[in-house]
Amino acid sequence: MSSTESAKTPSQAEQTKQVEQTKQVEQTKQTMKDFKSDQEVRWCPGCGDYAILAAVQGFLPELGLARENIVFVSGIGCSSRFPYYMNTYGMHSIHGRAPAIATGLATSRRDLSVWVITGDGDALSIGGNHLIHALRRNVNLKILLFNNRIYGLTKGQYSPTSEIGKITKSTPMGSLDAPFNPVSLALGAEASFVARTIDSDRKHLTSVLREAAAHPGTALVEIYQNCNIFNDGAFEILKDRATADEALIRLEHGQPIRFGTDHSKGILRDPGSGDLRIVDVTPDNEADILIHNAHAPSPATAFALSRLADPTTLHHTPIGVLRNVDRLVYDTAMAEQLDAAIEHNGEGDLTTLLTGTDTWTVVG
Amino acid sequence: MASQVSSPDDQAIPGGQRKPGKEIRRLDRVIIRFAGDSGDGMQLTGDRFTSETASFGNDLSTLPNFPAEIRAPAGTLPGVSSFQLHFADHDILTPGDRPDVLVAMNPAALKANIEDLPHGAEVIINTDEFTKRAMAKVGYDANPLQDGSLSAYSVHEVPLTSLTVEALKEFALTRKEAERSKNMFALGLLSWMYHRPTDGTETFLRKKFTKKPQLAEANITAFRAGWNFGETTEDFATVYEVAPAAAAFTPGTYRNISGNLALAYGLITASQQSGLPLFLGSYPITPASDVLHELSKHKNFGVRTFQAEDEIAGIGAALGAAFGGSLAVTTTSGPGIALKSETIGLAVSLELPLLVVDIQRGGPSTGLPTKTEQADLLQAMYGRNGEAPVPVIAPSTPGDCFAAALEAARIALTWRTPVFLLSDGYLANGSEPWRIPEPAELPNLRVDFATKPNKKLEDGSEVFWPYLRDPATLARPWALPGTPGLEHRVGGIEKQDGTGNISYDPANHDLMVRTRQAKIDGITVPNITVDDPTGEATTLVLGWGSTYGPITAAVRRVRGGGGQIAQAHLRHINPFPANLEKALKAYEQVIIPEMNLGQLATLIRARYLVDARSYTQVTGLPFKAEQLAHALREAIDVVD
Ligand code: SF4
Questions:
Q1: What is residue A28's predicted lDDT score, i.e. its pLDDT?
Q2: Is B313 on the interface with A (CB under 8 A)?
């Protein structure tokens, strides 16, 4: 124990949360540079991770949070190197476990802004259990899932989001398992905030991150990320101007869901099945085109939207915020239970606890 | 309820004055075993008798023994649940080898336990349950109450079930409901036989059934009926008295405590003494769940308990909380440790304080969930990839779990390392009187967090290096998120010495591996004391963990018979006490009893090149003192 001065303990930190936040607003404005660490970035040149890193470093200053109050926790994989490049607190942990580790941190330190960086293998394969439970618990975590539909760091095996038939080193005759749709999965796991965005669309990425940051509870943001070494062009259909208009469905809360050249296509709810249908917009049906409601209490429509995408070609992929609803936040509720326990029983007294009710005394 | 040992006669006794005609016999110690079906409430009965005995001031030791199934098939041998209690007017160390009294609630309970009784033991049998069918179910061809097979014992045939139903006839209960109180009838009878105070049990029943006052009254009525039955029936001619064990205890205030409760209290105390909020990440598992249950009751101490989705998340959340400055704990049993291994390795690499509590049970795999074993020692020592040293400590008695928790916290916080605490099923569920520590006796566990940069670079700028170590302890600084200017990243990839940046440099890795090992090797732990009263012993018996009671009891027997033997018991298994080698080499022979196949012996032989002999047992039950004494005598004879 080298230092003699004691830093504030977390419990004190908890109490001064309010004060801290006021202070942060007042302090001199941070810039993108303040969030860059001194470490050399070691992703492959051209990797989509660079764009995401830049977007995150670029938008964090606007949150007005002091960088010492921000923590990035990651698992294992290319994307999970992310925390090393952020000049905040950070932990590069073990494969799949970042949501669990971040849960412990976020529930015990509510004064912190905790972000999880993960990938499709990390979050959906080895760490699938932790992801779904973080989502259902609704701990105050922001989970950025970099989905490149491949294992990069282990050099190119298929991942749980790879399309069926994917030829890789471990599947020379094509993969056999059906992929996860991370957005559908998150909606099924009771997520209160689910969004999807794309590495190369800085503006869209930033706006989604902004909404995620403002969300109390767990926010899952799936980011389509190009791995130019092992799965180059996986999202090209959504990026290429020639195809993107037809392939990409941009969701905006309160707006009719339309896409295609000149917004010629739209989404209709089939009155018979209740399912969603893609239609050519005509003067007759224009008024019936589905209005996107990210705040809908039921996740049913968001789920139906997530199913529009073709798992192989990614045709008709919705991006934007699919769901954003308020519900009980785990760490807030936990803190309230602690407060209630003190209110009912008083602050714990050690001597009373150890003594209990049945004692006897031995006199010397 | 508080009582004075010096005046046990203050205790209320229902049923008024004792009738003349009952002989009073004084005993120095008694072993009672309650046995019945899993659904008969034997654990509760044993707990209550224990509480009465503790408040009376006897020394005591208990051994609950129950099946893993919540409701094992009724009336079968695997469904038998028992609770053994040893109490005395002097200090005792074990729950006892062979019961002096067996209460058998049904034929299965009789059959499963009768072999353990010495001739002359008293057997109280619930005759109501000895139907043809029930006896046939456990393989009694003839009625053991009639075929003379119990002639070596003093048998009391008591129709416990029908007497209970009769006593409760005034209550609006079905026969089935009334029958359920038969354990309280038995408790009342035994309480009468051994002159136990009864206030506590009546208060307990009223509290337990606050919402169902009728059930409270019914149980109390059955309890008193059992007492009065003993008082009036001629079959029970003797009342026994076991005086309080005043001389066995150092002055102070005492309570009875089980290992898991003591452990939970130790963790809360460590949190208070360190000023760090307690965070428990855990997944339910037998026999560790009671620690989770207990801690979740104490949120007013700022305790956060997190029931995770699995064992891995339990330790993961704890490690996250440690990064944030909590006193972080995960509790589990052997199978859970197997799942947590990777995260323990990460904690070794991150060099963050973390308590890993393993309440060992029979293994491998699911093994014997409700039975005890010490077979996770090598898993705790070595069960990780890479060179990942972790300190290991073990409590020796139920009450000692309290002190062990504080010691684990001291090591974790001072050396910034995960620490293994190896308890076991026997300690967890067993109980004993425990002297409540005075506040002044508790250690100061305050931690200094890093608050400012610790390194001046050549260009004059001041920076924070997360792996710049304290030269005395080799511990790294603990800088909490939220501290301005100390932003840093940690991870499981090898780090450069000092800066903590990723490094694949061969020489650096060699240095870091050796430094992490040196840090653990350098942890200061108290020297081991060897008990060798005459100084003439040639054999040393060495133990660790929960075998303390049986080994000490065995050593007393050997010495009582004129044998010479030295005894030492390890709390710290990694690192070993500095004087251990010298202590071992002072004896011609070292014998190590363990409830595994010789794991400590393996460590000792490897480390010190001492030809230690193993004496092992893996029955899921603790050693019996006499059996161990016999083994020790044989060992001594070989040398002498
Ligand atoms: S392997 Fe792919 S994902 Fe990994 S750094 Fe290279 S380009 Fe990026």
A1: 61
A2: yes
Report d(CA A59, CA A63) in Å as an integer.
7
- Residue B458: per-residue pLDDT: 96
Lowest-pLDDT choice from A3-7, A137-141, A171-175:
A3-7
Q: Which ligand 1 atom sits nearest the alpha carbon of residue A156?
A: 1
Query: Which runs of consecutive H residues, i.e. helices, occur in B351-470?
Result: 377-382, 400-415, 425-429
Q: Cβ of A68 and B502 within 8 Å?
A: no
Q: ipTM of the assembly?
A: 0.93
Write down the mean pLDDT value for chain B.
94
A35-60 confidence digits (pLDDT tens): 999 999 999 999 999 999 999 999 99
| Structural tokens at position B502 | 């990723």
Interatomic CA distance for residues B614 and B96, integer angstroms: 23
B513 burial (CB, 10 Å; 0-12 / 13-18 / 19+) is middle
Beta strand residue intervals within chain A, DSSP E: 70-74, 89-92, 113-119, 141-147, 193-198, 219-224, 248-250, 258-259, 265-269, 276-280, 317-324, 359-362
pLDDT at B70: 79
B73: tokens are 């098939």
Coil/strand/helix, residue B122: strand
Task: Give distance in angstroms: CA of A80 to centre of ligand 1.
Answer: 11
- H or E segment and range at residue A348: none
Residue located via tokens 């030791």: B61
List Cα–Cα distances, B554 to B92, B172, B550, B617, B628, in angstroms: 11, 52, 6, 15, 6
**Banded model confidence at residue A15, pLDDT cuts 50, 70, 90:** very low
Beta bridge partners of residue B589, listed in sequence order? B539
Q: Which residues of B touch A358 (CB under 8 A)?
A: 1-2, 51, 54-55, 200, 255-256
Q: What is the DSSP letter of B71?
A: T
* Residues in chain B with pLDDT values less than 50: 1-17
The full DSSP string for B288-352 is THHHHHHHTT-GGGT-EEEE-SSHHHHHHHHHHHHHTT-EEEEEE-HHHHHHHHHHHHHHHHHT-
Q: Tell me the sheet residues that pair with A77.
A: none
Q: Provide residues with CB under 6 Å of ligand 1.
A: A 43-44, 47, 49, 78, 148, 152, 227-230
